[in-house]
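From the pipeline queue, job 12 of 40. The input is one protein chain; the requested action is below.

Action: predict structure.
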Amino acid sequence: LESQNGRGVDGSELSESGDTIGHVLSTFVPAGQRVLILGAGRGQEVVFATSRGYATTGLSLGPMNIEIARETLSIPLLFRDAHTSLLPSGNFDAIIGIHVLEHSWAPLILLLECARLLRPAGVAIFETPSSIHHTGGRFLHHVLCPTPRQASGLFEKAGFVGIQQFSSGIPIAEAD
């Protein structure tokens, strides 16, 4: 946790397009919806989504991130583990996890919690690095970088339907 806890704070903001969060929101989430951002870091993505008309909640496990978000961005991130968020069921239209799943020691539990938090017909959008970036559990980073087939299996086991995958990185060959 300490490796991403408040590090790299330079006061910069997201680009006007919002980079990944901007693309995800404009492509998959209609304005005005309730959005949960997992792994919200220092809160820049929460500020971006809120400024675009989304009712946004952000979760972070970094105490310094919570403090930085409050002091520099004036937003109240929640200090919560996304595996057991304690948030009300069916409370969100969309859940976004950009580079979150690969840090989870229990990805199925994380996805089951996401399924519980989503309203019917809600969407979960996750971005993960290619499975070649797996560190074998040696570090907090990239405990699991699932192949496309593994990712589909995890989402299916958690009860998600209509799973779509997109790749912008290195293609990974999978055995049948």
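Job complete. Confidence is low (pLDDT under 50) at residues 8-12, 170-176.
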